[in-house]
From TrEMBL:
Record-given protein name: DUF2809 domain-containing protein
Entry keywords, A to Z: Membrane, Transmembrane, Transmembrane helix
Transmembrane region(s): 6-23, 35-52, 58-80, 101-119
UniProt xrefs under InterPro entries: DUF2809
Domain of life from the UniProt record: Bacteria
Organism expressing this protein natively: Flavobacterium helocola
Pfam family of the protein (one): DUF2809
């Protein structure tokens, strides 16, 4: 169990670094950051809810990402103030885009496949 959490934390940390770098390096397309955001959310969910089945984690992560994107349609003063901070901007985004929903589907699917093919396989081999 502890080994599983370590794998998910490592994947989470690497994805976080790649996501921040994708926003700092100008020649990387912006949609890569959105895909990595979904990957980050998936591995974060796996880290927090280790006993949840992978397909449920997939759906929960997608629901979370979609909720954050739809929340960008809400324009409340205090929410706008949070979005203007660096961390708030990274977590909550800035404006709603339909293309982001596609990026979230792709990112969550990539993370699910990485989990299924590499992390789950590695953990079952170590038992």
């Amino acid at each position: 169990m502890k080994n599983n959490r370590l794998h998910y934390f490592s994947a989470l940390f690497i994805t976080l670094i790649l996501g921040v770098l994708s926003r700092k390096i100008t020649y990387i397309p912006l949609f890569i950051g959105d895909v990595l955001y979904a990957v980050l959310i998936y591995f974060g969910m796996r880290f927090l809810f280790i006993h949840l089945k992978t397909h449920k984690t997939f759906l929960l992560s997608l629901l979370f990402c979609f909720s954050i994107e739809i929340l960008q349609l809400v324009q409340i003063d205090w929410l706008i103030a949070i979005r203007k901070t660096t961390l708030g901007h990274y977590i909550l985004g800035e404006g709603f885009l339909w293309s982001d929903l596609l990026c979230y589907i792709i990112g969550t699917l990539i993370a699910f496949l990485i989990d299924w093919k590499f992390i789950k396989t590695q953990n079952s081999n170590s038992l």
